[in-house]
Amino acid sequence: MPLSHEIVNAAKKIQSFIRKTPFIHSKAFSELTGAEVWFKLENEQVTGSFKARGATNKLLSLTDEEKANGVVSASTGNHGAAVAYAAGKLGIDCTIYVPDDVSAAKLENMKQFGAKIEIHGNDCVLAEAKAREVADGSGKTYVSPYNDLFVMAGQGTIGVEIGSQCEGLDAIVISVGGGGLIGGTASYLKTVWPKIHVIGCSPENSAVMLHSIKAGKVLDLESKPTLSDGTAGGVEENTITFPVCCDVIDESVLVTEDEIKQAMSLYIEKEDQLLEGAAGTAVAALLEKKADLKGQRVGVVICGGNISLDTVRSIIN
User: Fold this and answer.
1) Ranges assigned E (strand) in the chain
2) What gap in Å lies between CA 14 and CA 90, rounded to an integer?
3) What percent helix, strand, coil does the chain show, rounded to 5?
4) Do the Cβ atoms of 145 and 234 come closer than 8 Å?
5) How far is C-alpha 45 from the chain's CA centre?
6) Pair 176, 204: CB distance under 8 Å
7) What pTM does this model have?
8) Cα separation, 60 vs 55, whole angstroms
9) Which of 120, 117, 109 is nearest to 304 (CA)?
10) Hey, how many other C-beta atoms are within 10 angstroms of the C-beta on 139?
11) Closest CA to 181 of 55, 306, 87
């Protein structure tokens, strides 16, 4: 079944578990860029992030036996909270493995949704490897943050909503980590608006997927610390998102930590909303590309809003 069909099915399955988030026109950013800018507010999603979509779709796909055995996953925060949320709604036991540099705000968010937390390694790839090992030895289902058809299809439901919330876009800007968000969302939107220009963006400090696309294969690259912790870390060599991202991403943009910080500060000031670093990456890319996007209808996915007060203070100051 084509990915776009899986996404439409996912939208029907998860609609009672997630919010249809607003797609709002931004007067301030439209004036700043010379484009007509809309923000898709996944920072208002049930767990504060788009990840609730993919996790819910995956857990709904499990058999009764698989649900009874429980699930295990790995996360830098948002995916873990999403799995915990969906597991709680469906009565499934879940354990989340996290790297030791996980954001305090996102760790607390996972805990409030009832996740059992295990800390392992200094990179999400190591946490993922441990979670897979535990799953293999226990009969539990491993729920990947991105390397899973049901997860990617769930994230793609953002595209279904955007398609019903506006008459058309010339371009869309989406941050890239493992590729599930942009892979799913762009795959659907390109079936609706074939000429839409998809801009994938990552921080310079951690852009494994975007560098891999340029190389034509998944690379094993070191990731430096970044405000965009939701997109940080390595990418699994065999991930199903890689060929999808190669197919749907039309342009790659890398942004610096200063650019992310400035974009976040500006968004908080102009939109009166919190956003996390991964969402700030997309706003920074919008500002970076404003000359090219002038006069166009542009969507930007604000993928999450889970951010600590200390980080907010450091950005504003």
Assistant:
1) 23-25, 36-41, 71-74, 94-98, 116-119, 141-143, 171-175, 197-203, 251-255, 297-302
2) 12
3) 50, 15, 35
4) no
5) 12
6) no
7) 0.94
8) 9
9) 109
10) 11
11) 55
Question: Token pair for residue 139?
Answer: 């009969």
Residues in the chain: 317
The string of pLDDT tens digits covering residues 31-47 is: 999 999 999 999 999 99
Rg for the chain, CA atoms, rounded: 18
pLDDT band at 183 (very low <50, low <70, confident <90, very high): very high
- Which of 130, 50, 62 lies closest to 91, judged by CA? 62
Encode pLDDT of 132-161 as tens digits: 999 999 999 999 999 999 999 999 999 999
pLDDT tens for each residue of 253-309: 999 999 999 999 999 999 999 999 999 999 999 999 999 999 999 999 999 999 988
Q: How far is residue 264's CA from residue 182's CA, in Å, rounded to a whole number?
A: 20
Q: Summarize pLDDT for 250-262 with one digit per residue, the tens.
A: 999 999 999 999 9
Q: Average pLDDT of the chain?
A: 95
Quote the CA–CA distance of 75 and 73 in Å, as a whole number: 7
